[in-house]
Amino acid sequence: ELGFITYHRTDSIRVSEAGIAVAKEYLKEDDRTLAVPVIIVSVLDDQKQVAVSGAAGCLLKPVSRPKLYEALRQFAVEQGENSAIADDLTKMPVLVENREESEGTAVPETHARILLAEDNKANITTFTSYLAVKGFEVIVAHDGLEAVALTKSDQPDLIIMDIQMPKMNGLDAIRVIRADETVHDIPIIAVTALAMAGDEEACLAAGANAYLSKPVRLVELVETINMQLNLVTEKI
Predict the structure, then answer these.
(1) What is the 3-state secondary structure (H, E, C) of the chain?
(2) Is residue 120 located within the same domain as residue 222?
(3) CB–CB of 136/112 below 8 Å?
(4) Closest Cα partner for 214 from 119, 135, 107?
(5) Are 96 and 70 in contact (CB under 8 A)?
(6) 230 and 119, same structural domain?
(7) Domain at 156, CATH number
(8) How far apart are CA 53 and CA 89, in angstroms?
């Protein structure tokens, strides 16, 4: 996510939150890139980090093409005659999001509660931030035993279950949940980072309703969530 051209002139650079240190330590210390504006793309609204990095601004994920172009257009206008991209961007039409970017990702009207069973801190931050933007309430379980306990106590509308979990793996946690009559019908999306042949079948056999392999596309995750929640609604 870092557009960096070493020997050619560039007018702007986008960098993810993982590249804040790069923006601070390298881009702003190199004479060839010192004057190049940097725009950070992040799931977190951390203006302090933006200021420290020397970036010109920050866009919150998910960033659609219209939002990105509008941010660049606005930046070009603010830079005025000093920006080489001003003329091109101010003439650029505002684009409409395509079907892949917009369909299946609308903010749900019900503000459904989701239990995220995940032990990786980076994944927790990414998933919870994105799902919150989409209007979901997220509860986090850091291991399989906690996932089972929170399922019983909080009665979530849907569960995202990582299979590689400490204390109790995701497959066993799914089986325990399916054996409990009070929560057995909650839809479960199984997620695994070690995708191997037969994994999807094993997850579905354990009781999962859907299966996704990491790295998970956030748009696909929300589409799957909405599909499962819609199926539950249709049964009521």
Answers:
(1) CCCCCCCCCCCCEEEEHHHHHHHHHCHHHCCCCCCCCEEEEECCCCHHHHHHHCCCEEEECCCCHHHHHHHHHHHHHHHHHHCCCHHHHHHCCCCCCCHHHHCCCCCCCCCCEEEEECCCHHHHHHHHHHHHHCCCEEEEECCHHHHHHHHHHHCCCEEEEECCCCCCCHHHHHHHHHHCCCCCCCCEEEEECCCCCCHHHHHHHHCCCEEEECCCCHHHHHHHHHHHHHHHHHHC
(2) yes
(3) yes
(4) 119
(5) no
(6) yes
(7) 3.40.50.2300
(8) 25
| Residue 1 maps to a domain | no
In this structure, are 117 and 231 located in the same domain?
yes
Which one-letter amino acid corresponds to residue 7? Y
Residue 199 lies in a domain: yes
> Within this chain, do residues 180 and 71 fall inside the same structural domain, yes or no?
no
- CA–chain centroid gap for 220, Å, is 10
| 117 and 24 both lie in a single domain | no
**Could you tell me the residue range of the domain that residue 29 belongs to?**
13-98
How do residues 206-216 score in pLDDT, each as one tens digit? Answer: 999 998 888 88
Is residue 69 domain-shared with residue 147, that is, in the same domain? no
Number of domains composing the chain? 2
Close Cβ partners of 89 (under 8 Å, ≥ 6 residues apart): 69, 72, 73, 76
CA dihedral 218, 221, 223, 224 (to 10 degrees): 170
Task: Identify the bridge partners of residue 113 per DSSP, sorted by sequence position.
Answer: 137
Are both 142 and 229 inside the same structural domain? yes
Q: What is the pLDDT of residues 213-232, one digit of tens each?
A: 888 888 889 999 999 988 65
Summarised one tens digit per residue, pLDDT across range 129-141 is 888 888 899 999 9
